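Support request from a user on the community tier.

User writes: "When I paste my structure tokens into the form, the page sometimes reloads and wipes my input. The last time it worked, I copied everything first. Here is what I submitted, just in case something in the input itself triggers the reload:"
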């Protein structure tokens, strides 16, 4: 019984760490997209 609980705990910990990595990666992608939008808008404003 204790081995099952320990195994389940290990699996849950791994899933939690994987989810953190996924959220962190998505955050970086959104940040990069925001920077591109800012650069493009600055170029458009400079051309006006």
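"...and here is what came back when it finally went through:"
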């Amino acid at each position: 019984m204790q081995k099952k609980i320990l195994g389940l705990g290990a699996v849950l910990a791994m899933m939690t760490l994987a989810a953190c990595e996924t959220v962190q990666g998505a955050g970086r992608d959104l940040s990069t997209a925001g920077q591109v939008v800012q650069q493009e808008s600055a170029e458009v404003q400079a051309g006006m």
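Agent notes: The reload is a front-end session timeout and is unrelated to the input. The first helix runs from residue 2 to 46. The mean pLDDT is 84. Escalated to web team.
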